[in-house]
Amino acid sequence: MVKVNTESDELEREFKGFYLLSVVRLCVVFIILCGIVYPLASTAIAQVLMPSQANGSLLKNSAGQVVGSELIGQSFTNPALFHGRVSSIDYKAEASGSNNYGPSNPDMLQRTRDSINQWKIDNPDVPISELPIDLVTNSGSGLDPHISPAAASVQILRISNLTGIPADQLKELVTKYTEGRDLGLFGEERVNVLKLNMALSEMSAK
Q: Is there a contact between 160 and 170 (Cβ–Cβ < 8 Å)?
């Protein structure tokens, strides 16, 4: 049997070997660049330029304890505090989302009725006609930390009665923590409920 070993076969093997080696080298380079260099560089830059945002926009109380993030809402049930929006996921950040119920969905209608009934119990002196819709509706993410200024203001009477803080002072507090539109154009005015309640707690402690 005669073994044939043409020049074209040798060239083909050399090409395949060169091609494979090039692919391996390229993979190693991109693993180092994209998996090590880029994450370390972006993390370092973020820690220098915007350390608070890079670390989760955490909020601390007067004792230096972390009480939450200004980006994620919390459930406040104490009637002496401002209440936020309804959250179908109980503000669990790992489960961001909502049920996307339609307006005729029986579960959503029942949840809305329950929220309204709870409002009547907590705020007997404020008629339902003055209840802002964002206090009985869920946000798309279920994590919205904000309410409208109207939703904060309508709770002032209840909080004033329970804490003894004059309503005028609470109105000033809401105004102080009202955030404007982004760049003056985008979004709506809003109030961060956690920030507002932290300031309220400090005011109540005085």
A: yes
